[in-house]
Amino acid sequence: MDVSQYLEIFLDETKEHLQNLNTRILELEADPENMDTINEIFRAAHSLKGMAGTMGFKRMQNLTHDMENVFSEVRNGTIKVMPEMIDVLFQCLDALEEYTDSIQFSADEGSNDNENLIRQLNDILDGKDAEGGAPAQKKEAAPKEAAGAAEGDKWDNIALNDSQIAVIQEALSQGKKVYGLNVVVQEGCMLKAARAFLVFKAVEELGEIILSEPGAQEVEEEKFDRDFTLFVLTETELDEIIKAAAAVSEIEGVTGAPIVLENNKYFGKAAPEEKAEAAEQKPQEQTAAPAPVPAAPAPAPAGQKAPAARTDNKKQTPAKPVVNRTVRVDIEKLDSLMNLVSELIIAKNSLVSASDKEQTKTNSAFNEQVEYLESVTTNLHESVMKVRMVPIESVVNKFPRMIRDLSKKLGKKMELYMTGEETELDRTVVDEIGDPLMHLLRNSADHGLESAEVRAQRGKPDVGSIFLDAYQDGNNVVIEVRDDGNGIDVEAVRAKAVERGTVTPEQAANMADKEIINLLFLPSFSTAKQVTDVSGRGVGLDVVKSKIESLSGEVEVKSKLGEGSTWTIRLPLTLAIIQALMVVVGDEKYAISLGSIKGLEDIPTSDIKLVQNKEVINLRGTVTPLIRLNEVLDCESKRSKDENLIVVIVKKGDKTAGLVIDELIGQQEIVIKSLGRYIKQCKFISGATILGDGEVALILDANALI
Amino acid sequence: MELSANNAPNVLGEEGRKPVETVQYIVIRLGEEQYGIDIRNINNIIRMQHITRVPKMPGYLKGVINLRGEVVPVMSMRLRVGLSDDEYTKATRIIVLKLEQEGNVGFIVDEVKEVVTLSDNDIEKNAYNANDEKSNLISAVGKHNGELITLLDLNTISLEGN
Fold first, then answer.
1. What pLDDT score does B45 carry?
2. Three-class SS string for A168-235?
3. Which of A5, A153, A660, B30 sits at 20 to 30 Å (Cα–Cα) from A64?
């Protein structure tokens, strides 16, 4: 069977399962008795094994199989979760990740058998066998029996509602036949839903499906194990229907028999009067019958009390937490959708400006529609944005495991506390943010946290804490990595900078602590006394900084010696459409991102002071330098010299500056366009946008101007 | 076919039956001179419109325009070939070229005159000294109806000075 086309799905799902396993095993380490966790682990390992087997990755299958055995014994309570076992399991996950990586790059799992790990797993199993092999065997046999018993007469275990019973009775009384069909899909079938659909279609040609279990909706979403049951109302013979259904490829077997209502477990439950009533209402109910069908599975689990029925139920729909229905979409398709939305917003802006110009002529109905269009496009934009947003969870989830490993490797006790994993960011940003965060965390673990002795001396708890907090702040998302370790030793950095010749001793002496700390972001600057394989090679922080900046974000560090440091990453929520303030300088229009604007001021010329021959204003106690945009942009100001200045106060971190402009236009939603590779962008122009009248306006990057 | 052409180039050439490769050029006017641009490079010819100036750019780079939602840089062809600055008239056009590396780039020209079809025989290559700065932009000279058309090499024109 050619499986290459499924490789991508396989890799995606394998990664998901591995991540899930990592998280769950960590949970298990903290709470070894939690049955839910154990069950979840078992299910993930089981699916992993199944998928690997289907794709023909034998080594991966073997390893997961042995892992599954261990989980299964843990689930049965025959072996207890031990710390050594957790270690082995983590190693197994690493090995599986290796397989997955290898498959991703070469479509081959490689030749590492990981015999060592398999032996260790078996040792764990053997340890158990000495204590209680017998009960395990017994337990294994039991579900099989139950499953066997349930097999043949599945349709008799399905709850029918009154209308369905009525339909069946009506049909029988008309001399039609009602059959129960149980269809089993081949093991390893990749497109179960498609096969099931073909079966549905084949059967529907010969008769009418009045009920399916699981419901048609679930079957379509592949929410069934390997088999499903149909109730068919027909005039043809049973054999013919079975033949038609079995003709669909990848169907292992179809069994069927006429339905005898009396045999149905739930038939008796309906009160006799109700039945009679139902019979009276037959005509109406018959038409209503198709509607309740999808709802049918819902009452089923509630009514199932018999043990046999329960195993049955479990088999069909594994008790997974209900997952949101999702579609995997290529990010490129989302990009093109985003572009189209951008075009639409530009078109909308043109309509708005056209209606403004001809205000006298336009009627109110037109304006109303334009306003309506405006709200629709804004909502559309938000929705598309939301589609592109993913929680940072997918990235930060791997960190607890990493910290656990680092803790063992470095011989330091530490704990990672994360909050705000659900914070959402643009998909492209999330994809890129993982590495910088990992660098910062490693940095905290290696350089930040002190060794146990030092911590004891300083009276800190012996377990070091690292915090990763994410939250949304206006149009930005802030991610903070914080530790309660040593903090940055500014003097050590200063000395190092001089030693390396980065700055002269005089310069170093005059630099503020903050500037010194910023030296850390220079390439190949590391103060770690030894190079470990965790960090200290000096390739970390400059990479972090450049990566964050390439995402239009910024990174800052605050540190107090002896108390710890905080690294703050600030990222824009979106990269494509922003709210901006439109201003006029000379006779040109410019846009300034609202995110960097602190306020607007009207300043009389008399308030301008000169400090070191530079213009500043005293704005409520803070000295704010003035930047005359017409000078920066090489154009003539239209305002006369003694007029009051219109100043846009912009901020960058703690710094502020006042941009002197000629005129304000107002706030507008703008679509950021690149100026193209041809124009080497001048530093303070971050892009361009297209205005409502079709003109191009440049976007000023306030950060670069300060 | 190639062979026969090589054997008797004169005879066949004069009769015009030679299956030579022909290329269509758009003829533009810059001042008094005529230039030809390979039609395959041309994305669009548009009327003069408002150009948004981009600060701190070399003089020949006039700014950017909006070409159906795309921001396209525009430069002055006159300044690139060493003529005086543009004077915009009714005939002034922006030719948008699709270049391999830079994508769309617009050029301001005084007038777009016509489309001519030139065969290999009408084109004289290397007529200019390659060391001459200006001639770097010129790939060849074409002859059409007794007039000379300077053929521009546009991949160099846009790259230079950038």
1. 92
2. HHHHHHCCCEEEEEEEEECCCCCCHHHHHHHHHHHHHHHEEEEEEECCHHHHHCCCCCCEEEEEEEEC
3. A5
The phi and psi torsions of B105 (rounded to 5 degrees) equal: -140, 135
pLDDT at A528: 53
Which of the residues B53, B62, B97 would you substitute to probe the A interface, choosing the one with the greatest number of A C-beta atoms within 10 Å? Answer: B53
- Hey, what CATH topology would domain A392-572 get? Heat Shock Protein 90 (3.30.565)
| Mutation to test the B interface, candidates A345, A678, A681, A693, most B Cβ within 10 Å | A678
B98 domain-assigned: yes
CA distances from A571 to A136, A423, A425, A595, A598 (A): 53, 12, 9, 11, 18
Question: Taking CB atoms and an 8 Å cutoff, what residues of chain B touch A694?
Answer: 66
Mean pLDDT, chain A, whole residue set: 75
Measured between CA atoms, the residue of chain A closest to residue B63 is A679
Shortest CA distance from A691: residue in chain B: B66
Catalytic option among A22, A157, A313, A443: A443
For A77-122, how does the pLDDT look when each residue is reduced to its tens digit (9 = 90+)? 777 777 788 888 888 888 888 888 888 777 777 777 777 888 888 8
Per CATH, which fold does A4-148 belong to?
Four Helix Bundle (Hemerythrin (Met), subunit A) (1.20.120)
Residues in B closer than 8 angstroms to A343, CB to CB, are 69
Structural domain for B102, as ranges: 19-159
Task: Evaluate if residue B94 carries a pLDDT over 90.
Answer: yes
The closest of A390, A393, A382 to A425, measured between CA atoms, is: A390
Asked if A676 lies within 8 A of B104 by C-beta distance, the reply is: yes
Residue in chain B nearest A344 by alpha carbon: B69
Contact by Cβ (8 Å): B128, B138: yes
Residue B32 domain flag: yes
Interface residues of chain A, partner chain B, Cβ below 8 Å: 342-343, 346, 588, 632-635, 673-680, 682, 685, 688, 690, 694-698
Arch. (CATH architecture) of A331-390: Orthogonal Bundle (1.10)
A630: chain B residues, CB-CB within 8 Å: none
pLDDT of A323 strictly over 70: no
Chain A residues within 8 A of B101 when measuring between CB atoms: 677
B19 pLDDT band (50/70/90 cuts)?
low
In angstroms, the Cα distances linking A592 to A330, B20, B63 are 32, 57, 19
Q: What is the pTM of this model?
A: 0.47
Contact criterion met (CB < 8 Å) for B102 and A698: no
CATH number at residue B29: 2.40.50.180
pLDDT tens track for A286-316: 444 444 444 444 444 433 444 444 444 434 4
CATH architecture, domain defined by A577-705: Beta Barrel (2.40)
